[in-house]
Every structure is written in structure tokens, then in C-alpha cells.
Design goal:
Layout: E1 4-5, H1 8-30, E2 35-41, H2 45-60, E3 64-70, H3 76-87, E4 94-97, H4 107-113, H5 125-133, H6 141-154, E5 162-166, H7 173-182, E6 186-190, H8 197-202, E7 206-209, E8 227-230, E9 234-237, E10 244-247, H9 252-255, E11 261-262, H10 270-289
Parallel strand pairs: 1-11, 2-3, 2-4, 5-6, 5-7, 7-8, 8-11
Antiparallel strand pairs: 9-10
This protein binds guanine (GUN).
Guanine binds near residues 96, 98, 121, 141 and 273.
Length: about 290
């Protein structure tokens, strides 16, 4: 049996349309557009692509995009001064500092300098704390996007379902586990030190794979009918010499024979991240205006 494909690209497009409607209504109410500031330090090619797509999507949704670029030898003082300026700028509702930063800059120091109420990435420890105690704040975009896809498929209430999150990063694994717990799933966080990972995954009605290892999760690890969310985006050598292709953390060909539903790579979780970033920015704009 072949799994249903969870079309994150289509879901994200629908979400972006809805955000566009909110953006129009916000502009009429507030007399200004909502605004997202994105800061890029250095020339990392992948980061440049991400930042460009974020800027384009922001403008397409009817918001202002403010792009700030600093040289890769920018000092911490220079970056912190820019963050402070954006914190105090009333036209800016959301601030995102693109990661990774060059090695001489401490990411935690920089993230901690962002006003938590403009931290649309949800990376500030205040927002991590708010999520863990159930207070209103900002939730990191990728796990929130995964939850939206899951709830669209399975319903809001995940009571009685076993979820396994593979990966314990601050950006995906930990907030994902928190969100699933809040939705009443029974959650296991698995990681590189987990014993007999295939057996742990086999118990799961919901699998979220966020480890960054190409095609690590095999088809025979998956419980028949499970819903599989693949957060991985890994570039590997393609069939033809010199060509590459993108694969997830799940062996898609195998897993889609066993799962009930599965996100593809590309076109699954990836497009959700930017859509949720726009959503968080819109939420910030409304909160700040009220
Ligand atoms: N680098 C890769 N993904 C992200 C993201 O979602 N936010 C930030 N700030 N940097 C990233």
C-alpha cells in the first residue's frame, strides 16, 4: 500500500494566502504594513538563498521586508547595535538573524539581544520558556509547521497517539516534543544515544525525523499506517555523475510503502517554515498594535 503524500507546498500556499488577507486588513487598521527585518552576516551561499526567499515571500504576502547585510568580519558590537536599532524601530514587527553566524560571533548572545516580542523565530530563551509553561509567545517555525500538517491530517487532538521525535535540537526536536505533548500525544524524544532506535520508532503512530542524516529512517522501522513527518533536507550525490539531489532523513521509497501518510522532500516541511515565519510576523504585528 502506498502512503498518502502530505503536500506541504500546497498547505503552505494556502497559509500564505490567508496571511495575505490578514496583512491587507492589518494595513487598513494600523495605517502601515507589518514589517519583518532579516539580518544576514557574511556570504554563506545557502543563507543568501534562504534570506532572498524570505524577503520575496514577505513582500508577496503584503508586508514590508527589511534586509540588513553585514560583512563576515562584522564585530559583535556592530551586530548588537543593529539588533537594538531594530528592537526600537516601530515599523519592525519581527526580527530574524539568519543562522549560522560566522564563528567569531556567539549565537546565544545575539539571539538574547532580540526583543522577545519581536523574536518571530521563537529562538529566544524567553520564548522557549513561554512554550514550556504554556504562555503565549513565539514558537519556532519548523516545528509549528510540522504540527499544522499533522493536525490537518489527524485532527487537533492527538490523544491516544504515540509520537516519536528523532532529534533533540533546541530549534526543532525539543519544541516539537513540547507541541505534541500540548496536543495530548504521548511523546518520546529519541536521539543518537537511544538504544534500538528502530524498535522505538516502530511504536509510533507519529514519527517526526529531524536528525540531518540522509535516509536514516528505514521502511521496516515504521509502524504500518503511521504518519511520518520528515524535517531533513540533505543534499546527496545523484544517480548521474556530478548531479546532486535532495533527500530527507527518511528513506522515502521504503517508508511510503508502509506509512499511512508521509511528507516528501522537497515539498513537505520545507515550504511550511517560511509560511509560519510570515504567520508569526503577522501575529506579532497584531499583538503590537493592540
Ligand atoms: N537558518 C536555517 N534555518 C533558519 C531559521 O529558521 N531561522 C534562522 N534565524 N536561521 C536559520
Amino acid at each position: 500500500m502506498s502512503a498518502q503524500v502530505i503536500d506541504g507546498k500546497a498547505f503552505a500556499a494556502g497559509l500564505r494566502d490567508k496571511i495575505g488577507e490578514f496583512a491587507t486588513a492589518f494595513e487598513a487598521k494600523a495605517g502601515r504594513k507589518a514589517g519583518l527585518a532579516v539580518v544576514l552576516v557574511g556570504e554563506d551561499p545557502a543563507s543568501q538563498v534562504y534570506v532572498r526567499s524570505k524577503g520575496k515571500a514577505t513582500v508577496a504576502a503584503g508586508m514590508n521586508s527589511y534586509e540588513h547585510r553585514l560583512n563576515d568580519d562584522a564585530s559583535e558590537e556592530e551586530l548588537l547595535a543593529l539588533v537594538e536599532k531594530l528592537n526600537n524601530d516601530p515599523a519592525v514587527d519581527g526580527i530574524l538573524v539568519q543562522l549560522p553566524l560566522p564563528k567569531h560571533l556567539d549565537e546565544q548572545t545575539v539571539i538574547s539581544a532580540i526583543d522577545p516580542d519581536k523574536d518571530v523565530d521563537g529562538f529566544h530563551i524567553i520564548n522557549a520558556g513561554r512554550l514550556s509553561v504554556g504562555q503565549e509567545g513565539f514558537v519556532p517555525c519548523t516545528p509549528l509547521g510540522c504540527l499544522m500538517l499533522l493536525q490537518d491530517k489527524l485532527g487537533k487532538d492527538l490523544s491516544g497517539l504515540n509520537a516519536v521525535v528523532i532529534g533533540r535540537s533546541n530549534i526543532v526536536g525539543k519544541p516539537m516534543a513540547q507541541l505534541l505533548t500540548d496536543a495530548n500525544a504521548t511523546v518520546t524524544i529519541a536521539h543518537s544515544r537511544t538504544k534500538d532506535l528502530p524498535a522505538v520508532v516502530k511504536q509510533a503512530d507519529i514519527v517526526v525525523a529531524a536528525v540531518g542524516r540522509p535516509e536514516m529512517v528505514k521502511g521496516d522501522w515504521i509502524k504500518p499506517g503511521a504518519t511520518v513527518i520528515d524535517v531533513g533536507i540533505n543534499r546527496v550525490a545523484g544517480a548521474e555523475e556530478g548531479k546532486t539531489r535532495l533527500v530527507g532523513d527518511v528513506d522515502y521509497a521504503q517508508a511510503s510503502e508502509v506509512a499511512g501518510a508521509i511528507t516528501p522532500v522537497p515539498g513537505g516541511v520545507g515550504p511550511m517554515t517560511i509560511a509560519v515565519l510570515l504567520r508569526n510576523t503577522m501575529v506579532s504585528a497584531y499583538r503590537r498594535e493592540n
